[in-house]
Amino acid sequence: MADTKANSGKLLDIRNLRIEATVYPPGEAPKTITLVHDVSLTLEKGKVLGLIGESGAGKSTIGLSSMAYGRGGVRITGGEVILNGRDILKAGPKGVRALRGREVCYVAQSAAAAFNPAHKLIDQVVEAAMLHGTATRAEAEKRAVALFKKLSLPNPETIGERYPHQVSGGQLQRVMTAMALCSEPDLIVFDEPTTALDVTTQIDVLAAIKDAIRDTHVAALYITHDLAVVAQVSDEIMVLRHGRLVEWGGTQQIIKEPRQEYTNALVSVHEIEHQEQQPGTTPFLSVKNVTAAYGGGHVKVLKNVSVDIYPAQTLAVVGESGSGKSTLARAITGLLPPEQGTVTFDGRSLANRLADRPKEDLRQLQMIYQMADVAMNPRQTVGTIIGRPLEFYFGMKGRERDKRVAELLDEIEMGKGFVDRYPAELSGGQKQRVCIARSLAAKPKLIICDEVTSALDPLVAHGILKLLLNLQQHEKVAYLFITHDLATVKSIADSIAVMYRGEVVRYGSKSKVLTPPFDAYTDLLLSSVPEMEIGWLEKAIRGRRMESAGN
Amino acid sequence: MALRQIPVTAWIGLILTGAFAFCAIFAPWVAPHGNGEIVGDVWEPMSAVHWLGTDNLGRDLISRMIYGARITMEIAVAATALSFSLGSILGFTAAVFGGWFDTLLSRFVDLLMSIPTLIFGLVVLSVLPTNTLTLILVMGILDSTRVYRLSRAVAVDINVMDFVEAAKLRGEGKGWIIFREILPNALSPLVAELGVRFIFAVLFLSALSFLGLGVQPPDSDWGGMVKENKDGIVFGIPAALIPAAAIAVLAISVNLVADWVLNRTTSLKGGRG
Lengths: 551, 273
Known about the structure:
heterodimer, A: 551 residues, alpha/beta, Rossmann fold, 22 helices, B: mainly alpha, MetI-like fold
């Protein structure tokens, strides 16, 4: 520590950084918008600073400025970025080339998209170190293998010989961390490295990244929207909003005694009051011993699944990706006809195939998707999107239809001004609200919600969940809520089904499922949800009873 | 939309295409002389009387050009319209229905495409009577294989998107899915293709006429006029180059317009920004 202080302490010093971009709205003069408003930060050697904020807060933009890089036409127009005692914004193309991949390295959000699928992993990992001449091929490979070992990747000696598609998402993210560390940089920018991973995988990657940072004494900027995650790895946290600094302080202070209202909202998000309802006497939809498979029966994705849904209640289906939870929804809607088993609805059994179901059955079962922007036809206006089910199921036309559309927009807390807008003109939360209105328009008994909040920022997701609960009370609609996020489940569910590799491993009312003793998988799932508490990560890793599926 | 916002290139394209279209539609009134009227000597140079000179039989070249525009564009427009309606509807249908329908149609199209278009056209036209309708049908059907491929590829991509699945879950019929969900989203690549296909139709027709299987004398399209006057090139007479240049200018101007339309249809915000 004394050594680093003698080295003049500060590694990165960003002063009054201003970042602008020019937008070209069709039909208007181009205009300049400011993305980052005079943000300053400093980072000492070997420290980790967490940058946190919603999408559009400018956190990635600030992170990339430490490599003098502006993504997609973004310009750094003001301020200084001082790295290792020099202003890198004045370094010129040659100076920047010497810096990137040598002094500063970058770990991207989606490792699957960031690796070149045509090259072996090891070639990509050692490339930067070799190009910068800091190591020979043999040295770099030795270093890479040591890093693979440190990041607890399986078969560290040979994993580099694989291609990116031959390793899992969590492993790929760790390989990318190894790639960043391989050229022994002074600073690594982690851009949401665990956001795309399952909770049980996230915890492994998080622990690996944390160990690697500690052992190599590298400094890091850790960018994420998840406060609980950043609390585990960083020494300091900086909260950003709309390109401005909201609050900057030690990790302990930010999560325990936030001084700003916005930080407080971020910290206390997810706390929704929801009284668990007792299951009624008769379920209106029951899934009995359903088995379903893809590829003509070769890949079994659902094995003997039985669940019940009661009127105006919520059944949450929880599990990792690949657990079959979305397939369950496809089997219920008839998109994937089950091989065995039945789905009973209102006392009669539903036809297996979508094409054989009467219109009335289709109306009663509606669905909301994870990605709201691809769930709506980009060429239709909000009015058409919401109005179509009204026309289709109830034959409403003209003024009657417009009136009902306005009512629905009102119910989802959006005004009349949105009727003529196209989906591209809406924010992420608004898009999801329109999708909710579209499904409500059919006056269904059941809405299947497939990961509806996982693509949204925490505060927006919070608003959507509250809206869904309100609507449940007014409209008496039941939800089948598919999610991997247990915090969401706790705040919305009445009963829970935990799925693992196509089977329901635990099923019952919320209080029963969330009360010990747990089976091994439920325990892993519950203990993997990051908590806003320093030292949680170590405790969780120690307390685990089984390996996550990602390993 | 304000006229000022149309870019310069689009203006050039619009004006030239408009001029060609005007000549084509009002040919009998615009042309100073009749189509087959012999008015002077063979291959007279350009003069105040005959603006572009005369052709190999002493007919006024500018009048022939104007009548030629009419025939060329009439056949090309009709053939393109046919190939697009046929190709895109079959392509979308194949993508939405899938299964044996898709396989059967796609293999049939592969079969048609495996025979070089020009040779196929020559064989068919040497058997059938050469009139405008046959030309349109042959060109339209041969070209529709290309449009089919493109629209099927685009529609297969769109067909798996969530909003199409949502429409299927709602219980919508195939017609709604094809025309209301897929077509509007497939429009951009189709418009881009439209400009190119129209020009290929013009070129194909010119090639056929040049080989003597297209439009029959005394009528003539631009390709036929190149053929009639090609012998003059050796003597330094530009009469063959003028219709060739007209083909080139038409190709460029139509594509300038197509590009501009493409830019406008790509906007997902109804052009509002």
